[in-house]
Inverse folding.
């Protein structure tokens, strides 16, 4: 408690090579109760054995359709919901055993999508930002100064804004307040869950630039969740593509954009609206809604919508494996020569396969 | 953490005088019906509180020779009751007990019911089930019957009728508090507060209470009139106050034998109950619309 009185910054532990966040086989299943006594319902595999790592000072984007488990993953990492299986390791310390949930709060914070719902309408902006530091033992005066300093950092004059209520702010200003609140505990990882999706395009660009500036200034790492591929490409170093609770592909932005290996990633990229009329897509690359996650299809979960699906896809789930490019992985039978898929291309023999 | 959290709300003294409640107050003051109701209730309450200093007659002193005088009798503007006591005096003195019996149970039930409802709504799960199912038991009985049953079991008396009315009004307030809390609990700012490491008690006090008190308070004010009528009913049945204490419900009871002789005088306590309860109801309606700031 006494150490928290000044809310000293969290020290780095493992050096720059150690990943800041290492998620291993993380799973969260929700029971969907249908019958009166809880019988007859299924299990929603919202997040199913998801693994990834985020390096220090990296920006990792997570993309996917709604319901693919992006937000659940975020809530699991920040500890708002407890995982059913898997481990989350923050800078070498396992959450739950070596690192308490309370200490995790100092290290990981989150900015929510709905800028209005994520601010308490009965508290002033200053009170909202100062709340976290107060909870962690900072004196009222110090917490207020901290809130004022953070408001200045996100580009809002504290003399003008600290005493205002959320309904007196615009959407962009509210989201700046949310960012200031997330930074109030001095976190190292900030999860941005659709943080700019609800904003106007011009405001969105301003907030994105603010996020980039803050990252450099405060030595931050971002997990950037969005369905807007343009924004993800703009801000991210690496991208993770999720489909129905699973990671289907991950890799550096440029590798993914130029050489997407999973048909779902390709479909997502093809669905991006383009400003160039010659490159306009005339048809939807994939049709239909994602299958019901209560009863996901067997084998590869994407095979019901995949144009290249074969018998093997319905029979066996593909594992995430290297595509041959550094850090670039995909879970598709078509990149695994041993899978028996007719389109499976030969991958260089010396590549390490199944991760 | 809890020690620090106690004055967490007093963190930003730079709040401008544009708080939510001052806005509600100004909107309420602009509403003519609400202002009129508030004035009438304030007048009745003030005269009841100040009754001993208003130079009125003795509320207990009757006279057999001037029983049941009609309205407008010289010296007795509102007539006299069946024992020859001045009605005006007794109506004003009666307001003391009647208002107390109408307000206290609702106030107590508001505090207890809000606490239980917010806890049930915020914690959910087994705690919610335990509290809400217990509350459901009380719903098996009509409120009047429940009040009579509890009062009857405890015995007649003011304290016992206060107690029984409080018990009657806790369940509906718990239900409202629970449902409002459940809807607030799912909002992102509660998640954000949890993510900042605050405990359930701090979150309930700082983030939940401020957002649920309004609707619960409006609901509670609408219960005041019901409570006054129930209290009057208990007294009417002889379960509340006892003669010769002046109380509107009891006065209605003792005067009912005179309804054919002097109906206007006999109806007066009922008129008082009517005025006060409709006043509280309209005030509650005004408060409800004043609090709907976004409209």
């Amino acid at each position: 408690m006494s150490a928290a009185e000044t809310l000293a910054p969290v020290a780095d532990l493992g050096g720059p090579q150690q990943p800041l966040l290492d998620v291993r086989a993380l799973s969260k299943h929700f029971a969907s109760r249908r019958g009166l006594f809880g019988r007859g319902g299924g299990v929603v595999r919202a997040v199913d054995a998801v693994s990834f790592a985020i390096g220090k000072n990296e920006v990792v984007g997570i993309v996917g359709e709604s319901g693919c488990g992006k937000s659940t993953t975020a809530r699991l990492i920040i500890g708002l919901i407890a995982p059913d299986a898997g481990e989350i390791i923050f800078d070498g310390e396992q959450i739950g055993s070596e690192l308490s949930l309370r200490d995790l709060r100092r290290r990981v914070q989150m900015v929510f999508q709905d800028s209005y719902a994520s601010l308490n309408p009965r508290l002033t902006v200053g009170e909202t930002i100062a709340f976290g530091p107060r909870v962690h033992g900072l004196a009222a005066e110090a917490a207020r100064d901290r809130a004022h300093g953070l408001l200045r950092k996100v580009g809002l004059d504290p003399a003008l804004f600290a005493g205002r209520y959320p309904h007196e702010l615009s959407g962009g200003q509210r989201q700046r307040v949310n960012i200031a609140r997330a930074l109030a505990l001095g976190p190292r990882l900030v999860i941005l869950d659709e943080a700019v999706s609800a904003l106007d395009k011009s405001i969105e660009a301003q907030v994105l630039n603010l996020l980039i500036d803050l990252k450099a200034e405060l030595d931050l790492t971002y997990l950037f969740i969005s369905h807007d591929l343009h924004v993800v490409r703009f801000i991210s170093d690496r991208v993770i593509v999720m489909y129905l609770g699973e990671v289907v592909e991950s890799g550096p932005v440029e590798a993914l954009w130029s050489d997407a290996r999973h048909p779902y990633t390709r479909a997502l990229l093809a669905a991006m609206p383009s400003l160039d009329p010659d490159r306009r897509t005339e048809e939807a690359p994939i049709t239909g809604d994602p299958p019901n996650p209560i009863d996901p299809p067997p084998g590869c979960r994407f095979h019901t919508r995949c144009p290249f699906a074969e018998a093997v896809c319905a029979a066996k789930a593909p594992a995430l494996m290297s595509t041959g490019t550094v850090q670039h992985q995909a879970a598709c039978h078509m990149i695994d020569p041993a899978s028996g898929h007719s389109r499976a291309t030969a991958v260089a023999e010396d590549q390490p396969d199944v991760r | 953490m809890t020690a620090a959290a106690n004055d967490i709300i007093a963190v930003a003294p730079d709040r401008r005088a544009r708080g939510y409640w001052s806005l509600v107050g100004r909107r309420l003051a602009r509403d003519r019906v609400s202002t009129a109701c508030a004035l009438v209730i304030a007048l009745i309450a003030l005269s009841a509180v100040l009754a001993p200093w208003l130079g009125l007659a003795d509320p207990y002193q009757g006279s057999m020779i001037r029983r049941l005088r009609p309205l407008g009798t010289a010296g007795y503007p509102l007539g006299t009751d069946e024992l020859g006591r001045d009605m005006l005096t007794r109506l004003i003195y009666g307001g003391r007990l009647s208002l107390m019996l109408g307000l206290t149970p609702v106030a107590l039930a508001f505090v207890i019911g809000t606490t239980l409802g917010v806890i049930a709504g915020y914690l959910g799960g087994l705690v919610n089930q335990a509290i809400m199912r217990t509350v459901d038991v009380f719903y098996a009985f009509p409120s009047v019957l429940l009040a009579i049953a509890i009062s009857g079991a405890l015995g007649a008396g003011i304290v016992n009728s206060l107690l029984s009315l409080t018990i009657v009004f806790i369940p509906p307030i718990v239900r409202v508090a629970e449902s409002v809390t459940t809807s607030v609990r799912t909002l992102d700012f509660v998640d954000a507060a949890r993510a900042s490491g605050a405990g359930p008690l701090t979150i309930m006090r700082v983030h939940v209470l401020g957002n649920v008190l309004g609707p619960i308070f409006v609901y509670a004010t609408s219960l005041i009139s019901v409570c006054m009528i129930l209290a009057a009913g208990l007294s009417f049945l002889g379960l509340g106050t006892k003669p010769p204490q002046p109380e509107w419900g009891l006065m209605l009871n003792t005067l009912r034998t005179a309804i054919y002789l002097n109906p206007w005088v006999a109806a007066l306590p009922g008129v008082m109950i009517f005025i006060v309860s409709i006043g509280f109801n309209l005030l509650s309606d005004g408060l409800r619309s004043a609090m709907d700031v976004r409209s």
